Amino acid sequence: MANTILHKANTRGQADLGWLHSRHTFSFSNYHNPERMHFGLLRVLNDDQVAPGMGFGTHPHDNMEIISIPLEGDLEHKDSMGNITVIKEGDVQLMSAGTGVSHSEYNKNKDKPVKFLQIWVFPNQKNVKPHYGQITLNPNDRHNKLQQIVSPNTVAEGVWIHQDAWFHMGKMDKGFSLEYTLKKSGNGVYAFILKGDISIEGVGLNERDGFGIWNTDKIALKADSQDAEVLLMEVPMN
Question: Mean pLDDT throughout 141-149?
């Protein structure tokens, strides 16, 4: 029998710093909830909105896989590896912090906010050489199917991660159903509804709800509204 956990959108932690409005699915910064520390090796899922021209100054990370997925606008990234890039909707960025890296993230635009997901996953090996990856995907390739955006394989579709983790994004028409088969035994899947309404294993979910499921080898999804969008994050559970 599969295990599940439901995190409704309105139960998330939040931070409002004026220039930053963030919702935290799991404990982060000043939001601490012992019941919401992580899902398996998925440690952070932040839903961030940064005001025009503002951003996160240079700060360090180590031994964490950090994935950024822009949803609207343009995010400028600079890091101690020498990367200066802009990521926008359709892009996926991954930074393996490894032995240590410093970076900054700023809203590139002075006239509109940038919205993006910041996701942290524990790595499967410590103190690796820091690594940066960025790809641009065609969002049309996720219409009524799941588009792989992260994987542990350097030659597979998506950015590669130091973990047995696979991320997919899907955009579904109302009434459309699909199935996701887990890639590795013992993994679980955390689903985050980006837009609209989707049922997973018969559980009705709405925009920005999170739903974790484990002890199963596949999950069934059905769109309950038009243009429903989902992010699926398959991660080891321990």
Answer: 97
Whether 13-136 and 139-236 share one fold: the answer is yes
Which fold, 13-136? Jelly Rolls (2.60.120)
Mean pLDDT value across residues 117-135: 97
CATH topology of domain 139-236: Jelly Rolls (2.60.120)
Average pLDDT for 79-101 = 97
Mean pLDDT (the chain) is 97
3-state secondary structure 168-190: EEEEECCCCEEEEECCCCCEEEE
| Domain residue spans of the chain | 13-136, 139-236
Model confidence over 158-198: pLDDT tens digits?
999 999 999 999 999 999 999 999 999 999 999 999 999 99
Q: What is the pTM of this model?
A: 0.97
Asked if residue 121 lies in contact with residue 167, where contact means CB atoms within 8 angstroms, the answer is: no
